[in-house]
Structures are given as C-alpha cells and as structure tokens.
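Dear colleagues,

As part of the handover before I leave the project, I'm documenting each prediction I ran so the next person doesn't have to rerun anything. This entry is a single chain, and its sequence is reproduced below.
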Amino acid sequence: MHRKQSRRRVLQGIGGVALGLPFLELFQSGRADAAPSSKPLRYVFAFGGSSLGMDGGQKVMPATEGNMADLITRGTQPLADLGVADVTSMVSGMKIPWGATIPSGGRYIGFHASSTCPLACGMRSGSDGDETLQGPTSDWIVANTIAEDTPNKVLTYRAQAAFYRGSNGTGGTRGLLSARMNGTTLEEVPPTSSPKVAFQSITTGFVPPDPNDAAAAQRLLARRKSVIDLVRGDTDRLIPRLGKADQIRLQRHFDELRALEMRLAAIQPPDSPACTLPGDPGEDDPIGGAVENGMQGTGNGYDSNDAYSNEEKRASVMVDLIAFAFACDLSRVANLMFTYSQCFLNMNPIYGYPTDLHEMSHYSMGGGDAGQNAVADGVAWHVKHWATLMKKLRDTEDADGSPMLDSTAMILCFEGGIGYDPEQDQEGSPHSTENMAVLIGGKAGGLHKSPGQHIIRQDQHPAKVINTAMKAVGVTQNLGEVTGTFDELFT
C-alpha cells in the first residue's frame, strides 16, 4: 500500500526542521561575501489593494501641482513624518483604459484585480474573469539588468497573510503580482507571506561578523544542510511516482537545493559595516479567520482579530528584510505586495475603524469627510511602510559612503483611483481606473535632482511611472505594451 505524500512530508526534516520552498530563484548562484566593488543599483516595486478616494475628495491626491512637501495630504502624511517627501514624487490623473475589446495596456470592464496586470506588467489583462499576469513584471525585467550576480535575484514578499473571504486562502491569483520568463514560458512567482520563512530564507548562509554570532550561524547552517540531504533522499523515492510535469518541476527544485548546499559552503562573512543581521521575528502570528459578507461596517467580526494576522508586524518585518538584503548585497530587487486587490484586511486593529479596507471606500464610514478620511488612512498605512523602507535606505551608507537611497528607485501603486465605473455606469466610484496615482521615490539615475513634485498627467498610463523608475536603474525597455517615461522627474 502506498503512503499518501503531502507537501509537508516532502519538505520536513528531522527534529521538526521545515525546509520551505518558496520560489527557488532564491537559490541562484551569487556571492554575499563582501561589499560590492562599485555601488549597485536597486529597485522596489510595491502595491496596495486600495483605491484612492471617494466623493471626489482630495484626501490623497492634491488638487494642484507643485512641491510634494508643500502638498502633503492625509494619505501621504507619512512622507512628511518620515522626512522623505523631498525624494518622493506623485504622478496623478492617470488612467488604465478598458473596453469589451480590451485596449493595449488596458483591462476588462469588471473592476477588482483587473488593473493589476496592466500595472505590474504593462500588458492588457486577459478576458473577462482572467486575473493572471500576461507578461513579465518590472521586478524581473529590472533584475535581469542589475541583479544577475546576487544570491536572491528578486525578493518577492506579501504582507497580507490571507484573503479573508470565502475559503480564506493564503495564495490565489490575487495574491500574485510577480512574473518572470523561464525560457519561453511565463511563470507567475508566488510571494513569501510568512515573516519566519522570509527571515530564514534570506539569512541562510549569512555569517555575522561577531565571532559568537558567527559560531551560532555556522551551527544553524550545518543543520539546514543536513536537512537538504534528508529531504533529497525522500524526494528521490517520490519523484518516479509523479507525473512528468511534476517530476520536472520537483527535480528542478532539488537540483537548485543541491546547488544551494554547495554555495553555502563557500560563503564568507560580509565586510560592509551596514550589513547587520536584523532581529529574528520569531513565530508567525496566527492567520485570522474570514469575515462573512454582509458584516462590513457593522462591527461584527471586526472588533476581534478576524481578517487580521498582525499585518502591521508582517509589513514591518518585510521592510526590514529588504533593507538588510540591500545593505548586504544579498538582493537588489524587491517586489512587495502589501495587500491583496479588493483588500478585506481588518482596519480595526490598525486605525480603529470597524470595517475592512475595501469597504471603507464603499461608504461604510458614512461618506463625506468621515469616509474620505478613512480611505486616506488606509492609503497612508501602505505609504507609511513604503516610506519607512525609503528612510532606512536613506539612513544606510552605500559602498561609496553615500546613502543607499541615492542608487535606488522605488514604486508604490494602488489597485484603483476614483472616477467612472463602466461596470456600474457610475461616476465618482472607487471601482475605477481613472485618476490613478503612483508614487516614485529614490534618487537613482538622477531622479529627484530637485525636490519631489506632484504632477498631474491626465489620462496617461500609470505604467509610464514604472518605465521611469526602470530607466532610473538602467533599463531601457518599456513595460509590456506601455511606452514612454516622465523625464521631468529627472530634473
């Protein structure tokens, strides 16, 4: 009788040591044994599953153009609080087009998650109901130019632990926002949403300069290498029983694990003074339960930890790990998905609103100033964590003594804007890709020679801002079907 093989069994080693298998580009060859000989370029793509307003209010996007520091709104207040408004610009008024026949760089008419494909890869979305990415995303395009020789070509993280509706899955199409080409095949790359797994993955093989810490790290490394041996033997017996596609996929994973084992033996302590190990986040907070439809705005289910898994801590850990990886040259590119599209994250533990992020834009807070303030606060939560990463990079010395932010370009975009909703034939709706805005930060490639600006580029495609950030780190190609850049951000 054959024993049923679970993924947990395949990946588990002696003594309860679990060997997680997030996307294995993590295990590509590369070195983390010294500070880079020249200052590397770095890139961050971040996303929040929120729209930007309601009732035509200007609580996120300023009404006029000008110096960003002079036009801080409720939604962008963290830029001022963290002192990075001068190296951040906002481009607003933009639009992702739509239609029954989907236009170039456009989306199908149904709103939720239809904007993520045009945003992330610049390609028109699939047919009605198809939320999959249709081309490689900017993180992988950039990584092919600036990160080929790093141990972790792209860090792919997500702060929101689960969808919080229906079966409350922790993956799903809406939880994916990164895709790469593997030969001629497009592969969507699942993010790591566990802070524990993210920490263990990025710190595997890292040897701290302190001798006592280094000894402990070497013991842990030896233990993990022994797990690789154990798991490999188990899977060698499993592989012949799998279908051909699964055989190829699993064999590739474990070939890369073997390559990891060989590389770990050659890793030496980094000598960059900024490269210091972050604190271990410990065990993950438990994943909160789903909240049923119809309870939004009622307080039912939102006065507890339903639809919440301590995303405040999860986002903070992901930010810390990206900053650590950049400082140690373990990675130069990150994709950070804060929240799912149509985000049902409980906002009560964060801001005291008895509802989720999605329903705040649907008048659950009563509309008017109260509703606009709630939406802006939801946006500001994403901006806070994104700006915290920018501040960390600004406060960290690069290889040449300059701030790391001087060689970094960062993007923060959102699922929707505010305007016409063709699905409901309604004006002033958050279910709209009119009046979208994208934040761009950093100083790579001459960005922000002058203080950050708010500029309005009516009906231009938001992926043009991403093209601009890619240009700042030396990438000359456009994102998918969207062409052009906003070169005024380099002045």
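The longest helix spans residues 211-238. The two ends are 70 Å apart (CA to CA).

All the best with the project,
I.
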